[in-house]
Structure formats: structure tokens, C-alpha cells
Amino acid sequence: MNERVSESAYARAGVDQTQSGSAVRALVEVLGTIATGRPGRAALGSGHYANVLALDEKRGLALSTDSVGSKVIVCEQLGRFDTIGLDLIGMNANDVICVGADPIALLDYIAVEHADPDMLEQIGIGLKEGAEQAQIEIPGGELAVLPDLIRGHPSPSGFDLVGFCVGLVDLDAIVTGARVAPGDALIGIPSSGIHSNGLSLARRVLPDLDERVGDTTVGELLLEPTVIYVRAVRELLASAVDVRGLAHITGEGFLNLLRLEAPVGYLIDDPLPVPDVFRLIAERGPVEPAELYEVFNMGCGFCCVVREPDALTARDLLARRHPGARRIGTVTPRAGLVER
User: Fold this and answer.
1) Residue 186 and residue 270 in contact, taking contact as beta carbons nearer than 8 Å
2) Residue 123: exposed, middle, or buried by beta-carbon count in 10 A (0-12, 13-18, 19+)?
3) Distance in angstroms (rounded) separating the CA atoms of residues 72 and 196
4) In whole angstroms, what is the distance from residue 25 CA to residue 237 CA?
5) How many Å apart are CA 211 and CA 227, to the nearest integer?
6) Which of 32, 162, 194, 334 could cysteine-pair with 67, CB 3.0–4.6 Å?
7) Which domains does the chain show, CATH number per domain?
8) What is the Cβ-side half-sphere exposure of residue 326, based on CA atoms within 13 angstroms?
9) How buried is 116 (Cβ within 10 angstroms: 0-12 exposed, 13-18 middle, 19+ buried)?
10) Torsion on CA atoms 81, 85, 86, 87, rounded to nearest 10
11) Helix 84-96 vs helix 117-134: angle between axes, to the nearest 10 degrees?
């Protein structure tokens, strides 16, 4: 699973993950040289789902930012904008809770080609529903009208949607994955489908959004909102379960587990069921199985690493809000390897 596919379908669709990784490292290396002349507040290094700034000796502020990617193009083509706000909340709040923080607020940035009241109202509907699901506030944001930069599919429906999420966490309760150990259990929570990663590849191999797939369409499958896992994980953190690692499974699939700090590996020996949309992408691509698992969540949107004795309790607690959550694997001593 760690071997990358040469001449990947994702690269042919315009997204070269290897090149993107190199570009991010170049940026982070420069930012790592910032000298403010004051003591640093960052409690974590670069590369986790969120970082935490120490507010004082006990309390920290968790920070994360993300967009909804090229899923906006599907919204434009279908003329439907009422669910994309859910994706924005999911992509950001799900990341913040990965460090054990309680997400409390999100600021949204909406860049548009043309300020259309009906479209913005629809975006607001999704943001409202997502905020209520995650129990967070949206105390402000920004609307930028940028016709010279934003072009729609079709014009003038172009837009981009970005969020910045904050949360609170006690510094001694930050979850980094450092305590993850071989033998720990990996609990997977089902996804609703593609969520907000890999849409460039999905759109390339499934270009006809009106194509019927069973009792739905390709467009509806691609627009299915990202699941917001905040309430379930918040309840898990508040329980007696020893939560050792939390991973939001987004782009790069289960390789996201390697963002946890422990020098361990992961064996996915009983994966969750794979939604039909991924099977369709594999057939139409064609896309190799290894690449599918590097680009998509493949039916598992979030993972919780707990002690083996806590596995059943964790499963039952998570399944209350997300039916189908269950143990999918085990932590191994094979550092840096995700196997299935």
C-alpha cells in the first residue's frame, strides 16, 4: 500500500501528489525559519491535522484551515450549492478534533466570480447545518468578488470556499499519536462516499453528472456531503477510553495514519465496506487498487486508535452516532508501513 503507482490516473487528471508534497516541504522549510523575537507558542511540529498554540501554562488554541477542493466544480455544473457548506465544516472541524481539541468556531472565506444572492444563500444553508452538527459557531467570514481570478464551470457561477477552524484543548490532553503502540486497536468510522478529496480524478473518469447509477446520479454521488465526526469523537474523548490517536482519512487515504507521531505501522485487515462510487471509479478509470487507496477514503472517513482492552467500548460508543463503526485493524511494529 505504500508503493506509489507510476503514471497515476490522479496525475493524469492534473494532481501530482509527489510534486505537491515537495512543494509543501519547500514552503514549510521557509516558514520554519520565522524568528519573531518572542518565545514560540506552537505545541506541535508541522504535519499534524492541526497545530496548538499555548495560551498559558494549561490551555491551548487548536488551529486548522482547509478548503473543499474541486468539489465546487460539481456544485457549479449542477447549480446546487446547499450541501458544500457541510463539506467545509467537515474538512476543518474533523481535523481540529484530531489533536483532542474541542472545535468551537469557524471563519469562512468565499471567493466568487459574481455575487449571486441565491447561490450565497444556498452556501449559507449548508454552513448552518454543518455548524449545528459540529456544535460550532461561525462568528464571521469574508466574501471576495474576484471575476479576474475566479471562472465558473459554467461562468459566472465560479466560487471557492475556504475555512479556518479553532478549538480549545488542555495542553496535557493533546492527542498526537505519540502513545500509539503495537497491539493497539484501530477503529474505523464509515464515510458517506468521496467526501472532499480526489474529486479531480472522480470528475475525470465520471464526466457525465446526469448518468444514472441505480436510483441516483453520478452528480448526486459526487455531491454527497462529508461526514462530520465531531460529536462522536468528542464523546469518545470524554469517556474512560484511552484514546491514543485520531486520524481524519482524507487525501492519501490510510496513509494519513502515518501523520500520528509514534514510530509504528498499521495493518488494515478488516476494512469497512467500499461504497459503490469507488468501484465505479475503478472500473471507468481504470484506476489501480493501490492508487484508489492512496487517493480516496475507500469507505472509512475517520480512525481512532485505542488500547486493545478499550476496543469494544470505543466501537459501541462511536457506532451510536455512526452505525457501522468497528474495528478494522491493528497497530504493528513495522514503522512507516500501512498494510492491508
Assistant:
1) no
2) buried
3) 10
4) 32
5) 24
6) 162
7) 40-173 (3.30.1330.10), 185-339 (3.90.650.10)
8) 9
9) middle
10) 90
11) 40
Secondary structure of the chain as H, E, C letters: CCCCCCCCHHHHCCCCHHHHHHHHHHHHHHHCCCCCCCCCCECCCCCCCCEEEECCCCEEEEEEEEECCCHHHHHHHHCCCCCHHHHHHHHHHHHHHHHCCEEEEEEEEEEECCCCHHHHHHHHHHHHHHHHHHCCEEEEEEEEECCCCCCCCCCCCCEEEEEEEEEEEEHHHCCCCCCCCCCCEEEEEECCCCCCCCHHHHHHHCCCCCCEECCEEHHHHHHCCCCCCHHHHHHHHHCCCCEEEEEECCCCHHHHHHHCCCCCEEEECCCCCCCHHHHHHHHHCCCCHHHHHHHCCCCEEEEEEECHHHHHHHHHHHHHHCCCCEEEEEEECCCCCEEC
Instruction: Tell me whether the omega of the peptide bond preceding residue 117 falls within 30 degrees of 0, making it cis.
Output: no
Per-residue pLDDT of the chain (340 residues; tens, 9 = 90+): 543 433 566 655 556 566 677 888 898 889 889 999 999 999 998 889 999 999 999 999 999 999 999 999 999 999 999 999 999 999 999 999 999 999 999 999 999 999 999 999 999 999 999 999 999 999 999 999 999 999 999 999 999 999 999 999 999 999 999 999 999 999 999 999 999 999 999 999 999 999 999 899 999 999 999 999 999 999 999 999 999 999 999 999 999 999 999 999 999 999 999 999 999 999 998 888 899 999 999 999 999 999 999 999 999 999 999 999 999 999 999 999 999 9
> Which residues have a Cβ under 8 Å from the Cβ of 326 and sit 6 or more positions away?
187, 188, 270, 272, 315, 319
Q: Is the dihedral of CA 321, 163, 305, 175 positive or negative?
A: negative
Q: What's CA 145's distance to the chain center, in Å?
A: 27
pTM comes to 0.92
